[in-house]
Write a structure and sequence with these properties.
With 221 residues, the protein is of the alpha/beta class. It has a single domain, classed as Metallo-beta-lactamase, Chain A, CATH 3.60.15. It is 19% helix and 27% strand. The chain is built from four helices and 13 strands. It has helices at 54-71, 87-93, 182-189, 212-220, and strands at residues 2-7, 10-16, 31-39, 42-46, 75-77, 98-102, 118-120, 131-134, 144-148, 153-155, 160-162, 168-170, 199-201. The strands form three sheets. Strands 1-2-3-4-5-6-7 form a seven-stranded mixed sheet, with helices on one face. A four-stranded mixed sheet has the order 8-9-10-13, covered by helices on one side. The radius of gyration is 16 Å and the shape is globular.
């Protein structure tokens, strides 16, 4: 587990994805990123994945226990249904924890759909001042991005990926519904350039912590 404080109240950590295999290496790496944001008195956990290693797992829970004791139960936000990850573990551990999922993705959770406390829509205001933004078309239509105005940060699930040169790119076409391609997604995401972006936090690859708007503009063409 790698933990980084990006700004006061904004943290990112990585953990090994349990479904990763060497066969995935061409598409995404073994470690995925998760976000902790504290704003307006609320704790947000976006796509949380708790480390599986015993020592790291306990260290993670001890740190989050301290935060919850100070600031109250967390609000878990999912960028997409398949990023359920450790959300249920968080709900089980903390009384009053809430799970926010876009209404389009609730059914995709299967049995875990019963644990959703808040089904939201695109554009809804959420705890901590977060805002859900539509992520695109096709398979990406089941995704949202979360805008965190308190930190000028945009959090993406699978529709944007970090690149080796410190930028971002749109996900590969084979991650999308066959009726659409990357250009459709680029068209859908261009309104994001109107946001006062300072940071772009992705699940796969490294985050962009400076020049985020320029990096996004380059990815969208």
């Amino acid at each position: 587990m790698d933990v980084s404080e990006l700004a006061p109240g904004l943290w990112r950590w990585t953990a090994r994805h349990p479904d990763w295999t060497p066969g995935n290496a061409g598409a995404w790496g073994p470690d995925v990123g998760c976000v902790y944001c504290e704003a307006d008195g609320a704790i947000l956990l976006i796509d949380p994945l708790v480390p599986s290693d015993g020592e790291e797992r306990e260290r993670f829970w001890r740190a989050l226990d301290r935060d919850v004791e100070r600031a109250g139960p967390p609000h878990v936000l999912l960028t997409c249904a398949w990023h359920l990850r450790s959300a249920v573990d968080v709900l089980d551990r903390y009384a009053g924890a809430r799970l926010f999922v876009h209404e389009r993705g609730v059914a995709e959770l299967g049995a875990a759909s019963e644990r959703v406390t808040d089904a939201h829509r695109t554009g809804d205001g959420l705890p901590g001042g977060a805002v859900a933004i539509d992520a695109g078309v096709g398979a990406a239509e089941m995704q949202v991005l979360y805008w965190l105005p308190s930190h000028g940060a945009l959090v993406a699930g699978d529709v944007l990926l970090g690149t080796d040169d410190g930028g971002v790119r749109v996900c590969p076409d084979d991650w999308l519904d066959a009726r659409f391609d990357g250009e459709d997604v680029r068209d859908a995401l261009r309104p994001l350039l109107d946001l006062p972006l300072e940071r772009l936090l992705v699940s796969h690859g490294e985050p962009v912590l400076a020049g985020a708007r320029d990096a996004l503009a380059a990815a969208l063409g």
